[in-house]
Specification:
This protein is an alpha+beta fold and about 400 residues long. It contains 12 helices and 10 strands. A hairpin with a 2-residue loop joins strand 2 and strand 3. Helix 10 crosses helix 11. The chain binds flavin-adenine dinucleotide.
Length: about 400
Amino acid sequence: MDLSYGSDMEDFRAQVRHFLAERWSPARVAEDAASYVRAFRADATKAGYLYRGVPKAYGGSEQAPDMLKAQIIREEFSRARAPSEVPGNGTTMVIPTLLQHGTDWQKQFFLPPTVLGDFLWAQGYSEPNAGSDLASLRTRGELAGDHWIVNGQKIWTSHAQNSHYMFALVRTEPERPKHNGISYLLIDLRQPGVTIRPLRQMTGRSEFCEVFLDNVRTPADWIVGERGQGWRISRTTLKHERSTIGGSERNDETFLKLVSLARRRSRFGQPAIRDREIRQKLIELEGWILAQKASSYRRMSLALDAQDEGLVGLVNKQLTTEIAQRVAAIAQELIGASALVDPMAAKGAKRGDEKWLDQIMGSLAVAIAGGASNIQRNIIGERGLGLPRDLTLERDA
Ligand SMILES: Cc1cc2nc3c(=O)[nH]c(=O)nc-3n(C[C@H](O)[C@H](O)[C@H](O)COP(=O)(O)OP(=O)(O)OC[C@H]3O[C@@H](n4cnc5c(N)ncnc54)[C@H](O)[C@@H]3O)c2cc1C
């Protein structure tokens, strides 16, 4: 099997490297991070490396779809630790959803500032009694003249406290069967009636929130798709969310850091890297990482052949979860009991080791965010392997 990208693509890689060497200086970031990164992103977009699928009219670089080039750009930006597209829901979910289903004015109004990171977005799907069974959601939207009036509560809404807008699933046709009664509304979060309460997580930070909507108004034409089509539109968004979570670019780097940790920590009086059990676990982990890489290549090949990727994106999300949990388990074993208190207190600790604590706790979140693992396994089993359907839930992948 030839896994090289070919000489044309290696020429392209050289161009990307040249651009990064000329234009990206990690030393400069420290001086004036925000404006340096903003200017870098603008140049990288102009050069055709970022927002490739977004038309120029909406602030993108409008490049012909090319999975290999996109992969090379991801690899090289990651290698140089250069910022890629603005992180968050705007880039990963709103832009692809509006490009596919938005009206012209919605694209013109929302996309350019989202590309620049001036509009930040929250995802208002989950509710206290609607997570895995999302179609049970109860937040109501009623059309009154030229506005929707929205009442209800969302929960686990990541970064809502810093967001300007929320794309939300709202029940607008309560008389219809549950999946057909939902609409996809865009809501301005900076208005009376919106209460955002950050939730404190076990890391001590507050990255997600409760969002209460009390007679909140949103213009009638801030609906994406038709009334009652929200479930179908939300599938586009979820597909992009899962494929973002399923990315494999950072795995190699994490693996090397884990190996470095194993070299520095000791186990039974010798460097942990010499311990048979640790070596075995590291080799198994490397196997999972290679499996995800192979699955990513498969996804790329399917796209290159213009074939439907089926459930490969979902499988990749599961692999990400599996890898994150294995990394966390090994890191925890290497750092020992101090891992859950203060990783820096241990002998041999070095700057950066404190991040393992976040990794260990974050590995639990990745098994829930974007759809809990059991639900993903059900979908893979039913749709991918043809197993009998789970009768408790009606879903659409
Ligand atoms: C870090 C993080 C960020 C998030 N950000 C957002 C966000 O920005 N916006 C948003 O809307 N939501 C967000 N969520 C919420 C997330 O989508 C939900 O937590 C998730 O869908 C699960 O829903 P739930 O928490 O209600 O759990 P439940 O649905 O109650 O599930 C609890 C457990 O039961 C299992 N389970 C449930 N039903 C079945 C079944 N039929 N078969 C087998 N097992 C089942 C699940 O796998 C899970 O283990 C975030 C979650 C996390 C962890």
